[in-house]
Amino acid sequence: MTELQKYYFGFIFVIFMFMKTEPQLKFSSTVFTIPLIFVFAIWFVYWLEIKFGWNFNKFGVYPRNFSGLKGVFCSPFIHSDTNHLFNNSVPLFVLSACLFYFYKEISVKVLIYGGMITGLLTWLIARESYHIGASGIVYLLFSFVLFSGIIRKNYRLVAVSFITIFLYGSMVWYVLPIKEGMSWEGHLSGLMTGFIFALLYRKRGIVKEKFEFSKTEFDKMFDEDGNYIPPEIIEENELKEINYKYIYKENDEE
Questions:
Q1: Quick one: which of 201, 199, 206, 112 has its CA closest to 159?
Q2: Is the pLDDT of residue 114 over 60?
Q3: Rounded to whole angstroms, how far apart are CA atoms 52 and 63?
Q4: Which of 42, 107, 136, 246 gets the most CB atoms within 10 Å of its CB?
Q5: d(CA 140, CA 231)
Q6: Residue 8: its pLDDT value, please?
């Protein structure tokens, strides 16, 4: 196991640690089942290509061409080789697991709508070539998890954001055209979409914890500006009426 793989599995361990400390979070099977299904699907599609000698590259995003729009839905499942596939599989699983655990309420919307918008942005701004791979989704998840924690100011989510930077911060360089044959436009589209969704959903799910101090009897002796409020003294001006009852004793004298 490489050092990088240890970090990945360490990150999963951190997720379990958070499960025990955050009362607003509840673990469900979808945290791991949906990411596993997604990863299995992209490996299965690649296996079909190898097994039957098919080439699905033409189902990728082809910019500013009507037929190229099918890639908005198909391209995340298509990869050029095993190296490309493996590089996307691990961060896809880890980041999507984070999404479904920490942001369960909006996870499906972020994944589906965010993935569609990422694909459409790629279709609009990318160079004329077939753009394939789940890296756009990976950048979408990376950006959303990173910025959501910071924007919400919840210390647990901020911690997750910093761990995300630690693990995947180097990915930011790949939103620039620094490597030939790489769809940096898809990366940039995912990064921008994730940031936009983090802003849109900043008030959904876990937000900054608000602490309210309960007032004691001593606190009630001061107003909002800290001025002392003397207690009210009620004087009893009228004496209470006292009723007497006399019992006469008869003398038994003969």
A1: 206
A2: yes
A3: 28
A4: 136
A5: 60
A6: 55
193 close to 148: Cβ distance less than 8 angstroms = no
| Residue-level length of the chain | 254
| Ordered domains of the chain (ranges, CATH) | 3-200 (1.20.1540.10)
- CA–CA distance, 210 with 233 (Å, rounded to integer): 37
- How far is residue 124's CA from residue 186's CA, in Å, rounded to a whole number? 10
- Measured in degrees and rounded to the nearest 5, phi and psi for residue 228 equal -70, 135
The closest of 40, 140, 141 to 100, measured between CA atoms, is 141
Q: What was the pLDDT predicted at 167? A: 75
Structure confidence by residue, pLDDT tens digits, 65-107: 999 999 999 999 999 999 999 989 988 998 898 899 888 889 9
DSSP 8-class letter at 226 = -
Question: What is the reported pTM?
Answer: 0.76
